[in-house]
Structures are given as C-alpha cells and as structure tokens.
Specification:
Blueprint: H1 10-19, E1 21-24, E2 28-34, E3 42-47, H2 54-70, E4 79-85, H3 94-107
Helix pairs in contact: 2-3
Length: about 120
C-alpha cells in the first residue's frame, strides 16, 4: 500500500476522531470522516503496546493494510479511516482479521458488497 494511502499526521488523526463517526466490534474500532475533495481513501492505524510486542503489533498493521488493499475497490474512496485494534486481535490470524474488518465496515456502511 502506497504511503499516500496512509494518515500519518497527528492533526489528521485528531480531525477524524473529532468530526468522524465511529463503529466498533470486539476486535476493532473504526472511525470514518468524509472528505469530498479526496481522490482515494486513507487509513490510519493505532495498535497499542497492550496488544503485544513490536513484532506482533507490526504483523497486525500489515494484516489491516492488506485487507484494505484487497477491498480497495469496495471501500468508499472519499473517506479517511482510522482503525484502532483491540486486545482480541493479538490471537487472530489473517483470515479472522479480514472477516472482522469486513464486519465493522459493513456496520458502518462503508463497504459495497455488490462489487465483489
């Protein structure tokens, strides 16, 4: 996933937290913020030290980025997404992470399942 698809700046994260909408399940909290002028979606990731060591946290972030890359044609391109991983994610494999992220995206109505 290209770096232009990532949220890195603190101000961008804060804007999504303040003005965005949130939806959660047991594994993830998803914040979304609509940005009309944007050509493609951006994602910001937050994986706490409570979840595991650096290797585990980086693995989880890779999984999340991969899921968004696979779902890129189904995800609304005019939005910023901030994903916060919760503790149960540390015991999940890739397919479980994908299923859980799809679930939270469906809850927030940010995924178009017709484009599968």
């Amino acid at each position: 996933m290209k770096k232009t698809f990532r949220i890195k700046k603190s101000n961008d994260f804060q804007a999504v937290f303040r003005r965005g909408k949130s939806v959660a399940n047991r594994q993830f909290v998803l914040y979304t913020l609509k940005k009309e002028e944007q050509r493609h979606f951006r994602i910001g990731l937050s994986v706490s030290k409570k979840i595991g060591n650096a290797v585990k946290r980086n693995q989880i972030k890779r999984y999340i980025r991969q899921v968004f890359q696979e779902l890129s044609d189904q995800v609304d391109p005019t939005k910023d997404y901030v994903i916060i991983a919760r503790k149960p994610v540390s015991e999940m494999d890739y397919h479980s992470v994908k299923k859980s992220l799809e679930h939270v995206l469906k809850l927030s109505k940010n995924i178009d399942m017709k484009k599968r």
